[in-house]
Amino acid sequence: MFSRLFLHVRGQWPLLLAAWAATGCIAALQFVIPRLTQYAIDHVIPKSDYNMLLPIAGGVMLTAVLLGVFGYTSSYAFAKVGQRTVLDIRTSLYRHLQSLDMAYFDRKRTGELMSRVTSDVNQLQQMVSAGTMGILTDAVTFIAIACFMLYQNVQLTAVLLALFPLMLLAARLYGGKLRSSYRNVQETVADMSGQLQDSLSQIRLVKTFAAEERENTRFAELGEANKEANLAATRFSALFGPAIDLLQYVGMAFVLAFGSWQAMRGNGEMTAGSMVAYLAYLRLLQNPVRRFSRLMSTMQQSAAAYDRIIETMNTSPQVADRDGARELHVGTGEVVFKEVTFGYGDPSKDSPLLCRFNLVLQPGKTTALVGSSGAGKSTLAHLLLRYYDVWDGAISVDGMDLREVTQASLRRRIGIVTQETMLRSGSVRENLLYGRPEASEDELLQAAKAACAHEFIEALPSGYDTEIGERGVRLSGGQKQRLSIARALLANPAIILLDEATASLDTESEALIQQALQTLLHGRTCLVIAHRLSTVRSADRIVVLEGGRLIESGNHEELLEHGGRYRSLYERQFPQGKQTEIPHET
């Protein structure tokens, strides 16, 4: 942990040098007050030298002021280094999370990942700001004072220093248990964050089913687990401090006994003043150890948080740009699925969902995918966006394998409109510009008008600057969908994916959406995924999937005449129209 933290602070040498210089000055000034005390007891008091009282008092005050100045300098410099380091760690962690593939997010709860970026990094911040730098300060102070005490009295100091390996052994024994305990604490915090995120993000579901008490009970159970984990960690931490204090008091008892014996002998080895000064040095020597014992708890908490952070940082994305990956430049927009085999599990253990699947999306044409739930329709969309990599085979755009191009360039060339609209908390304008922030105001307005969205946007309280709430909660389903289409139009993609884009809309909203889609799809290669056959009757080609296999292909009339699976789906949706056409929806 310390070596990794050092990598983050090594670029901040000016601040570190200033902090260490101030720390060295503090260590040197620590000797002044005990020496002045010794001089006052051994020389000023016996000689009744009143003239020295003010200089000694002034020396103590000046030393105190200098200690304050250097202490402030050291603390602020170390804190600044710590804050910069934590910012660097948090930014790196967030950037790494953004680079991970969809399979990772399928396995992890959002609340748990939020806990790692917030709670775990905040815990590490305490260690960086106060812990690591405090340990360095105390180490310098400890070494300086120990050397001086050896110079003053070798016998006493040698015995005292012999106790410190025992303290380190105690720290070693308790450290592992504390770390394990605090890792459990961090995991219970992550569980609570996950529960909180789930319940608040789905508050409408909770209210709809009057499940408030169940959610309260679940959160209380997780809170109880967190309490027990904290108490278990506190038990170990509470035992460690008294154990260290006991060893320190053993050392103090030895100094009092042996030092007093030396002073009473009167052979000059120890005087009353030097005895008092030596006890002051002993307290200075013990202060770093005492602070270290208190820091042990923080260190182990930070170590547990650090383990979880590094666990995430060491996760490599399964889908990543290859070395030398090129930008995708779409020409005609032909998409080819060639002998594609894929499943969501482990290729060595699980059966594939798609097996040797072949499909060609003709340039500038609309291809519709229909079939039962679980047939693999949305999976094809995910593979085209390269959320996942195929197990075998290849997917290409204009002859370029998707694995040979950068993910960013691929996704910039593909526009997607889904049943569950993907909107962010913010204004209408911010959501429209999300896919193309550099677009001009005229381009923005043209896209909104083409998507039949301009009129309702202008009617909003603040027009394009109206806040739409989390996930667009203040808009209707049709309005949100038209915003999604406008955003896709503004991005001007070469390929369009429509995944159940009109499945949850009423007839009036669907009519407006279909009108907007005609503008969006014009001249673009399009893949439409739908259960409602009324939305795909005008597609240039309709492909029927079952069990991950292509079983039928043709246009609407051809598939009806064929009398296969498509006709079965049609008759199930429109039982009154077995001998007629599927009704148009304008």
TrEMBL record:
SUPFAM superfamilies xrefs: ABC transporter transmembrane region, P-loop containing nucleoside triphosphate hydrolases
Domain (ABC transmembrane type-1) ranges: 25-301
Keywords: ATP-binding, Membrane, Nucleotide-binding, Transmembrane, Transmembrane helix
Organism: Paenibacillus herberti
Family: Belongs to the ABC transporter superfamily.
GO cellular component term, pick one: plasma membrane
Pfam families per record: ABC_membrane, ABC_tran
Domain of life: Bacteria
Coiled-coil intervals, chain numbering: none
Bilayer-crossing regions: 12-33, 53-74, 133-151, 157-175, 246-264
Compartment list: Cell membrane
InterPro entries assigned to the protein according to its UniProt record, in alphabetical order: AAA+_ATPase, ABC1_TM_dom, ABC1_TM_sf, ABC_transporter-like_ATP-bd, ABC_transporter-like_CS, P-loop_NTPase, Type_1_exporter
Membrane topology classification: Multi-pass membrane protein
Domain ABC transporter residues, every copy: 335-572
One Gene Ontology MF term: ATP binding
Disulfide bond among keywords: no
Protein name: ABC transporter
The keyword Ribosomal protein is assigned to this record: no
SMART domains listed in its UniProt record: AAA
